[in-house]
Structure formats: structure tokens, C-alpha cells
Amino acid sequence: AGLAGPQLFRPAAATGELLTSQVPLPAPFRVPLPVPAVLAPVARDADADRYEIVQRQATVEILPGLRTPIWGYQGTFPGPTIESRSGRTAVVRHRNELPVPTVVHLHGGRTPPESDGYATDLVLPADAAYPTHSHSGHASMHDPAAVITRGEREYVYPLRQRASTLWYHDHRMDFTGPAVYRGLAGFHLVRDDEEDALPLPHGERELPLLITDRAFAADGSLRYPSIDPSLTTVPGVEEAYLEGVLGDVILVNGAPWPVAEVSATRHRLRVLNGSNARRYDLALDPPPPDGRSFTQIGSDQGLLDVPRGHEHVPIAPAERYDLVVDFGAYPVGTEVTLVNRLGTGSTARVMRFRVARRGAEDSHVPDRLGELEPLDRAQAAVTREFSFRGGLVGDRHGWAIDGRPYSPTRIDARPRLGDVEIWRFVADLHHPIHLHLVHFHVLSRGGREPGPHDAGRKDTVDLRPGEAVEVIARFDGYRGRYMFHCHNSEHEDMGMMANFETV
Ligand code: C2O
Ligand code: CU
């Protein structure tokens, strides 16, 4: 039954620089950009919207002419987009018709612990033939606090938070990488009056862009080290796998290097890096006349205080950048490529915009966007430090926080509810660090001011090799146990995760 065994922990996996597709890659910029469908609620009452999602296997056409089996929310990749209003509860009932247990996490959601998608709170397959006791074989799976359900689970999201680009994805302990790679990810957008009052591009001029990389086998299926037994013999591959799984096909909203026809007006791009391990450095080619590809209006957790112009935007797994591009700066007929300055060959380009026609401009980017609650050092009750490093875990290489691989039963920090804390992270390599429940501000990077891309309310911050980053957060919302971890999914699955508990 699929990935029911602990394949990830065999010294067997491979990427090389990337995991190479065994099919000819399609010509780029031919497939129209899909936009995931917005899910209609099954019911609405005074303060809640109710949704139902079935997690199931499906076969879809990702590369033209090839059939690819996926795991999808509603059988699609990406899953349907949920759109919520700030302060209105979304209740999402997930039914698991997949052959493996699943866990759903709303990334960036301010969610009570019982609905946060804790890694051991499994939803077992609805199929009664699936054994009640998971046979993952991984001893640390033992978690007396886990709440395991069969077939379905209702996740309650109060969404007492500001407008932001959230996303939902699988979070099962030790198996997040393969599950998300197979397709378990979708957008959850939160809107509010503050943002709606701004004259930003909207309607079809607002595009959510989920960027991922994948590799394909000759039969069209996805290649992932633990899925593909042919990879177990590639020499020297264990080390490569440690970097995380990279593919050579770039998908946007599930389509390879797609093309979008746009009017010569401003557009809002809600960019989410949903890749397991790949970082991108995005820019437009050609750049607009002023050289600034993007005007950033928001970060992981919603609007910035003021807009910031960027020539390029680096984005690590799970980060979001809310960007306005003014296609009015280009003559009609221009082809504008969204490029990845960290890529080579097929991974150096992401998608294309074709400036197809004039359009009446109805938006602009105001000088003031949102208010940010200032948090400063003097408010911090505690400073904690965590190191994110690789090393030997038992007899094989793994990833750990403070040298300890993840255990659901160990709590590494107990912030008091409502306290402001500074967390200092140090790393050996790039690690995108994500905290559940809270948002934070970057206080310093490498002992200096935060970088130009660190602004705003964040929930994920990319550490760079040898560089310390300090973030400051108020730990409020709910009492309970939450995870923090590296969002390189393979690092996470190999143990680079820990718990904090708000008390
Ligand atoms: Cu996007 Cu703990 O995850
Ligand atoms: Cu990492």
C-alpha cells in the first residue's frame, strides 16, 4: 500500500543535482496557467463556513500526453482553494480515501492545537482493511497524546488573523515529503476589510502561484526516492538525498512552465514556494524599465507596512511573497518570463506572461499598506537559541535541532501564553524554519539588520549557511503543543523538527 513502510530511512534515496525526468521535457510556455478552483462551502451559518474535502488518488495530465497518478485534495493538484474572511471560522471535514494515513496542517493558520495537524494526529484510511495500528515501524511514532481517527476528521480554523496567503498540506510524521510531492497541497486565502479597502489588483488580476518542482518517470509517474525503487542503486545518492528532493520540471499550479495572457495592467501575484526543497530567486526577464521586477506588498502573513521594490525575490520552501507586477510598463505583445536565477537549464525558468492586450487600469499600490504591531527587543521575556544542523543520528546521517532528532514526546520550549520571545536560529546550511501558531518579525540576520526580503509578518524564515537569524514573536492564541521545524520536507522527515508548548 504505497508508502506505508519507512522507506525514507533506508540508505536508498537519490537526487543528484536533481532528480532527472526519464521523459523528454515538454517545450515551455505552451500550457495555459491553471488557477485552482475555489471550493464552495457545503453550509454556512452565522459565523462559520463548512467545507468537505476528499483526499483521493487520481490520474491527471501534467506533462502533455502523459498520465500521472497523484494524491490530491478532491483528486486535484493543487487542491481547491479555500477563501475565508478573517474572523469567520472555517470548518473543513477531510475524508481520507488514500492508502496511507494523512494529517492536514493549515500553514500560517492561527489554529487551536487539536486542529493544527500535529504530525501524529493521524487520519487513518477510510478503507477498513487498513490496520488500526500504523506499521510505520518508526519507534518515535509512539505518542501517547496522539488523537488518531479513522476515515475522517474535522479541522476547525477560527482564523482570528489578518488577510494572508495561507496554504494547507499534509504533515504526517516522517512522510510529509512524499505526500506533498504526490500532490497534497492547496491554497487557503484569508481576506479582510483592511485589505479589501486598498485599491490593489483584484479579480482575474490577482493570481495565486504555487511553484513546485517534480521529476517524472517514463510512464508519467512522479519520481521520488522512496517511490521509485530504480533509484536505490544510484551510487553516492544518499548524500544527495540529504539536500532534499529536487526535480527538473517546474510546475506552477500543477502545470509545467505555463503561460498566462495578461492585460497591460498591474497584477497581484501571490507566490507560494510549495517545493519540497528547492529555493528560487525570482525575477522578470526582461525587467521593466525601472529594473524593479516586483513591488512587494505582503509577506507570509499579509500586508507589509509600506511597499518595497525588488529587482529579484528569493523564496525558500513554504515562504509566500505577495507581489505586484505592472505589465503596463511593457508594450503589448511582450513576452515576460518569470525566471529563477538559482536554476540552471530547465529549472532556470518558471513561467511566462504574455502581455496580450491593453486594459483599463483600476488599481494602484498605495504608499501605506497595513499597520504592523511593532515588537522590540525590550519586550522579550526570554531569548532562546536553536541550532539546525546535520549529523549522525544513530548510524546514519540525519537532520536535527540542537543535535536531537524529533520526538513527539519532548518539548523544547515552553513560552508563556502572551509573552514576547526572541528565538535565535543558527544553521550549517540553508534551512527554511517554520513556527506553527505564531507569526514573527525578523530582528537580525547575520548580526546585522534584517535583509531586504525579511520585511513583514513571517512564519517561515530561510537560514543561510553559517548565518544566525533572530526572530521575535508574541506567543498568543492558544495553549498547547505545536511543532517548529525545517520546511525542507526531507529534512523535516529526517528529524529536523521539535515542539514548543504555550503554557
Ligand atoms: Cu507548512 Cu509544519 O508546516
Ligand atoms: Cu533543513
Structural summary, described in words:
The structure is a single chain. With 503 residues, the protein is mainly beta. The chain folds into three domains: 174 residues, Cupredoxins -  blue copper proteins (Immunoglobulin-like), CATH 2.60.40.420; 155 residues, Cupredoxins -  blue copper proteins (Immunoglobulin-like, Sandwich); 126 residues, Immunoglobulin-like. It contains four helices and 33 strands. The chain has a seven-stranded mixed beta sheet with strand order 14-13-12-16-21-18-19, with no helix packed on it. Strands 1, 2, 3, 5 and 9 form a five-stranded mixed beta sheet that branches. It has a five-stranded mixed beta sheet with strand order 15-23-22-17-20, with no helix packed on it. The longest helix has 6 residues. The radius of gyration is 21 Å and the shape is globular. The N terminus is likely disordered. The structure holds CU-O-CU linkage (C2O) and copper (II) ion (CU). The site of CU-O-CU linkage has 10 residues, from strand 6 and strand 32.
